[in-house]
Amino acid sequence: MNDEFRDAVYQIVAAIPAGKVSSYGAVARQAGFPRHARFVGRLMSQLPTGSRLPWHRVLRGDGHIALAGTPTGEVQIQRLLDENVPVTGGRVAKAYFVTWND
DNA sequence: GCCCTGACGGGTA
DNA sequence: GTACCCGCCAGGG
């Protein structure tokens, strides 16, 4: 895959404001590569632990935490709660999703 | 090039 | 709400 896509995804994710969340599919779409949600997930999984990217603001399309049940997922939830994003039952309300101005 | 895998997503029962 | 199923596309063995 192009480095362009990777770079685009990083920018989109970095553009998600604190207190808001988005989905892998939405990020891929915004990056100009629809149906590459899985690839976005792959990029996240390959991100170094100390990355400055707010990857924790990226969830599944239905608002469910992708890695719920795993250590990384717990960290993600904790970070979201820290940003005043309610995580109930391992999921976030659709109302907290960023509203992209297409 | 084939086959399996996956931090996905939408549809159906 | 839960459980399945199927389409999607790139990576890695």
UniProtKB/TrEMBL annotation:
<keyword id="KW-0808">Transferase</keyword>
<dbReference type="GO" id="GO:0006281">
    <property type="term" value="P:DNA repair"/>
</dbReference>
<dbReference type="GO" id="GO:0032259">
    <property type="term" value="P:methylation"/>
</dbReference>
<dbReference type="Pfam" id="PF01035">
    <property type="entry name" value="DNA_binding_1"/>
</dbReference>
<protein>
    <submittedName>
        <fullName>Cysteine methyltransferase</fullName>
    </submittedName>
</protein>
<feature type="domain" description="Methylated-DNA-[protein]-cysteine S-methyltransferase DNA binding">
    <location>
        <begin position="4"/>
        <end position="81"/>
    </location>
</feature>
<dbReference type="InterPro" id="IPR036217">
    <property type="entry name" value="MethylDNA_cys_MeTrfase_DNAb"/>
</dbReference>
<keyword id="KW-0227">DNA damage</keyword>
<dbReference type="InterPro" id="IPR014048">
    <property type="entry name" value="MethylDNA_cys_MeTrfase_DNA-bd"/>
</dbReference>
<keyword id="KW-0489">Methyltransferase</keyword>
<dbReference type="GO" id="GO:0008168">
    <property type="term" value="F:methyltransferase activity"/>
</dbReference>
<dbReference type="InterPro" id="IPR036388">
    <property type="entry name" value="WH-like_DNA-bd_sf"/>
</dbReference>
<dbReference type="InterPro" id="IPR052520">
    <property type="entry name" value="ATL_DNA_repair"/>
</dbReference>
